[in-house]
UniProtKB/TrEMBL annotation:
InterPro entries reported in the protein's UniProt record: Phytyl_CoA_dOase-like
One GO MF term: 2-oxoglutarate-dependent dioxygenase activity
Record flagged with keyword Hydrolase: no
Name of this protein: 1-deoxypentalenic acid 11-beta-hydroxylase
SUPFAM superfamilies: Clavaminate synthase-like
Keyword terms of this UniProt record: Oxidoreductase
Region span, Disordered: 231-264
Species for this entry: Fuerstiella marisgermanici
Keyword DNA damage: no
Domain of life: Bacteria
One Pfam family cited in the UniProt record for this chain: PhyH
């Protein structure tokens, strides 16, 4: 990760479209290290949860609220350049809300229904949608293996009612259909290490992975300090986020990979 990203990120694009792409957020070596750690991570293997998509498939994911200091995940979330970008786009100090790994395996990875993240987080006591996620491609993300799709500008619609579909909760389909008559659907195809930052109200989904290639993605979710939840929920309230040099991504990741390869 570069020591600064602010000169390459357009806040006006984010405010207009509800998302912004960051090419090569991680270097090739950092992206490769993240992929190796994730594939070897016994915690991911043991704690996968599955969400049926109502279409015969299921998405697997691992969600974490804690932020260990000895993991590459924590080093990425804390990386000063990324934190600065999130604060630039959201206009306030941010903190770690949670992070997760999405696991779409070849031929079996399910779809995500249309939804807004704030459609979920609203119920966690967050008064405002002043929240965002950074999704980093662990594997190549393509239309064939179920890459993220967004509706450009849909964050301006405000929060949409969400209902249950299978094991997932999705946005009201009638409103989605109306939005797609006026707004552009964008397939966010990304090489490993590139990322997309999207607003908490941006409508997004993904197709099933019907390809021979995996599509894993690491998602860092941030909330703003002024949006500190007014009630307890499964995700944390505000606490200051320590900022780390991006150099610690490679250092921490290499140490973690070495530990993972040690016999129990």
């Amino acid at each position: 990760m570069k020591n600064t990203l602010l000169g390459t990120i357009s806040k006006s694009d984010f405010e207009r479209d509800g998302y912004v792409i960051i090419p090569d957020l991680l270097t090739m070596d950092e992206a490769d290290l993240l992929r190796k750690v994730a594939r070897a991570d016994r915690d991911i293997a043991a704690n996968r949860s599955s969400r049926a998509d109502g279409e015969g498939g299921a998405v697997e994911l691992v969600v974490r609220n804690d932020l260990p200091e000895d993991s590459i995940y924590g080093a990425i979330v804390r990386a000063q350049p990324l934190v600065e970008v999130m604060e630039h786009l959201l206009g306030d100090e941010v903190y770690h809300y949670h992070h997760k790994m999405i696991l779409k395996e070849p031929r079996t990875g399910g779809a995500w229904t249309w939804h807004q993240d704030y459609g979920y987080w609203y119920n966690n006591g967050c008064l405002f949608p002043d929240m965002a996620s950074c999704m980093i491609a662990v594997d190549q993300a393509t239309k064939e293996n179920g890459c993220l799709q967004v509706i450009r500008g849909s964050h301006k619609m405000g929060r949409v009612d969400h209902v249950k579909r299978g094991d997932q909760t999705g946005a009201d389909q009638e409103r989605i259909d109306a939005a797609l008559q006026q707004l552009e659907l964008v397939n966010v195809e990304l090489p490993p290490g590139s990322a997309v930052v999207f607003h908490g109200n941006t409508l997004h989904r993904s197709d099933q992975n019907n390809s021979e290639n995996p599509r894993w993605a690491f998602i860092c979710c941030y909330n703003t300090k002024h949006n500190n939840p007014w009630k307890e929920s499964k995700h944390p309230r505000y606490s200051p986020l320590e900022r780390w040099s991006p150099d610690r991504i490679a250092e921490t990741g290499a140490q973690q990979l070495s530990r993972l390869h040690q016999p129990d």
